[in-house]
Amino acid sequence: xxxxxxxxxxxxxxxxxxxxxxxxxxxxxxxxxxxxxxxxxxxxxxxxxxxxxxxxxxxxxxxxxxxxxxxxxxxxxxxxxxxxxxxxxxxxxxxxxxxxxxxxxxxxxxxxxxxxxxxxxxxxxxxxxxxxxxxxxxxxxxxxxxxxxxxxxxxxxxxxxxxxxxxxxxxxxxxxxxxxxxxxxxxxxxxxxxxxxxxxxxxxxxxxxxxxxxxxxxxxxxxxxxxxxxxxxxxxxxxxxxxxxxxxxxxxxxxxxxxxxxxxxxxxxxxxxxxxxxxxxxxxxxxxxxxxx
Length: 293
Hints:
- With 293 residues, the protein is an alpha+beta fold.
- The protein is 46% helix and 12% strand.
- It has a domain at 27-218.
- InterPro entries: Marvel, Synaptophysin/porin.
């Protein structure tokens, strides 16, 4: 207890309050539900065969089956209604592959969720260092999400086949004595498969959890920031100049170009001289009329 209290006091388990850690706890719990409801299942159904000669009848034929549902190995003894030894019959089908695949994915999901949650609590800094741990976590999470999709669909189909193969009305057709209309064959007890139905539901719940966890792990990888930094808007306004005093406006007067026309000279010097005359300062030479003479 002292160690646990110390870890809580140091904030080691505060990651549980974050979606990244909280969803790992849910994955861990629902993985347990998935493999326990499927892997620990055992069922039974009962039939009765009432012969014309009732001394040969058997009104309580029990057939038991369980995980991993290798039904072709499950047998029962049915009367022949002819006084001979009972006739041994086997169920039809082997659905162990889909069931074992489903349970295997659930077990490995349980182990990985527990390991990932421990990493979040104790080595979160190393997990986030250079985003390597987060990227590995993202890839593994994507693989488990895909595996949950495949295994849940496969087990749903396998469960449908198991229900068909263990239907007492269908199994009765395997008994030769029931081909005679003088003998009465009927089902007495149907197998309860509610636990197996629940296992399929837990499989798809796990699929939703692992798909949702992809988003929270993706935010830890740093790929989102990389994508956002590489984005450049197509229309972006140019920034305004910091100051208009840098070298002046730098604009040329459109009227001061190389075009012909009047170019005023702003360097004129003018004023009144001492004799009272006005000196314009244009430095113009007097016009000579000698040529005209």
